[in-house]
Write a structure and sequence with these properties.
By secondary structure, the chain is mainly β. It is built from two helices and 32 strands. Strands 1, 2, 6, 28, 29 and 30 form a six-stranded mixed beta sheet that branches. Strands 3-4-5-7 form a four-stranded antiparallel beta sheet, with no helix packed on it. A hairpin with a 5-residue loop joins β20 and β21.
């Protein structure tokens, strides 16, 4: 990596990472050994979910964040899939709803009870059937409630209206080969995909139109990952011809050459980017690595600025990070990762050193909150909306403030109905009650006949 002569001024130049102590880790977890370039975990302000080894099908574990230490072997699992689970993701609008995709070709939506599981969970709220091969990617819409994306080995992307359990959009003719990654933009109006055919695509999902294609953003044959930045630029990770790992920033208006491309090292592990739109920092985590690198993406050349790296002895099998509403702002915590080892999950905190205990406004601009900006029908009809933001200032004064809360009004299985539909429902209920009464009368008549017959037989004796 090239060393620059002038030290650039940045409030994030001294960000440092620190692993939690042993009593704040989660031990004795049999992390999945599936050969898949996924995160195998996800976290929100209430729960940590980890895909685990399981016999007889696929399963994942859901732990309350407070349940640190050694995990009991009898801990109940979410185990409704009949094959290995490949991806899981918490709903951003409800802390108790999680989606999972697996090798059984199904996507399932689960509701985790308050306080966590007390017994194995085998019945999902909704099972979404539509893929013909394994489902390796699930991703919730960032601003619209009840919209979920899934991508499978059948080279198809399906967008589901979870409230009805139906396919809303099927994009099955845009990718000729395996889909490596799918990412929403800030308001959920566009998708960014990378594919085995070595092309990046920007897609308008509702019209199923490819707006932009870029062939071979990186020269190597290994998988490419791509995400949108907050200002609409495209950040990619990939490989050069000699397996050197690279990062690049692209302007969608001029995709001929990257705004900046930087080589990092030589390794075979795919780098997965985690981008924080509030700070402009992108964190790079690779499976099999023992390092988390972080860069600041800005408008000034060379656009991608190396900050530092967190290194440890143990290699990582997977990783996820906490939503901003779950961070401890009193300690100037700007990110928290959950790193999977072979038998353990270790939280890693990224902190900006500050002496003052006062809320640091420059570190914590308003961030995305749990309230959806649109419902499913509005988004499917063509509406777009920016995320609804919340302030993290309250978190500095009291524990738990600013955390996402379950949104009962937007609960997954609730379907909005018009007044006419409600009146129709009332008529249906009346008909059902009337039929039940008729059945009960017939049953009583049958019982009376049997009793009369029994009396006759007993009298004959």
């Amino acid at each position: 990596m090239t060393m620059r002569q002038v030290v650039r001024s940045s409030k994030f130049r001294h960000v440092f990472g620190q692993g939690m102590k042993a009593d704040q880790c989660y031990d004795d977890i049999r992390v999945s050994r599936a050969t898949w370039d996924g995160n195998f975990s996800c976290v929100n302000t209430e729960f940590l979910a980890i895909i685990v080894e399981a016999s007889g099908g696929g399963a994942f574990m859901v732990l309350p964040l407070s349940k640190c230490g050694r995990v009991d072997k009898a801990t109940p699992l979410v185990c409704g899939h009949t094959a290995v689970v490949l991806d899981i993701e918490w709903c951003p609008h409800n802390d108790h709803i999680i989606a999972s995709g697996a090798e059984d070709c199904n996507v399932m939506i689960w509701e985790i009870p308050e306080g966590g599981l007390t017994r194995p969970l085998t019945e999902p709220l909704v099972t979404l059937e539509g893929h013909t091969k394994r489902v390796g990617i699930v991703s919730w819409h960032p601003t619209a409630s009840n919209i979920l994306l899934s991508a499978g080995g059948d080279n198809a992307i399906i967008i589901w209206n979870v409230s009805t359990g139906e396919k809303a959009l099927v994009l099955d003719s845009l990718h000729p080969d395996a889909i490596y990654s799918v990412a929403w933009n800030r308001d959920g109006s566009r998708l960014l995909t990378s594919c085995k055919d070595k092309k990046l695509r920007v897609i308008e999902p509702r019209s199923q139109r490819v707006e932009l294609e870029k062939e071979k953003p990186h020269d190597g044959t290994r998988p490419v990952r791509a995400i949108f930045t907050s200002d609409g630029k495209i950040f990619t990770t990939g490989f050069g011809k000699m397996t050197e790992r690279q990062v690049a920033l692209w302007d969608p208006e001029s995709m001929g050459s990257p705004m900046h491309l930087e080589e990092l090292d030589v390794s075979s592990g795919v780098l997965i980017p985690f981008y924080d739109p509030d700070t402009g920092i992108v964190y790079l985590c690779g499976k099999g690595d023992s390092t988390i690198r972080y860069f600041e993406v800005t408008d000034e050349a060379p656009y991608i600025h190396y900050l530092s790296a967190f290194s440890s002895k143990e290699t990582q099998r997977g990783f996820c990070w906490m939503p901003k509403t779950g961070l401890d702002v009193k300690k100037c915590e700007i990110a928290r990762f959950y790193k999977l080892h072979d038998r353990k999950c270790e939280p890693i905190v990224m902190t900006v050193p500050r002496k003052s205990d006062v809320f640091q406004e420059d570190l914590y601009p308003d961030t995305v909150g749990p309230e959806p900006a649109l419902d499913a029908d509005q988004w499917l009809s063509g509406q777009d909306a920016d995320p609804i933001k919340v302030s993290l200032r309250e978190s500095a004064g009291r524990e738990g403030a600013g955390k996402a809360r379950p949104l009962i009004l937007h609960k997954i299985v609730n379907v909005k109905r018009s007044p006419d539909q409600h009146s129709g429902d009332s008529e249906d209920v009346t008909q059902v009650i009337s039929k039940l009464r008729e059945d009960l009368d017939r049953l009583k008549a049958t019982v009376d006949k049997h009793e009369e017959r029994i009396s006759q037989l007993e009298g004959g004796q």
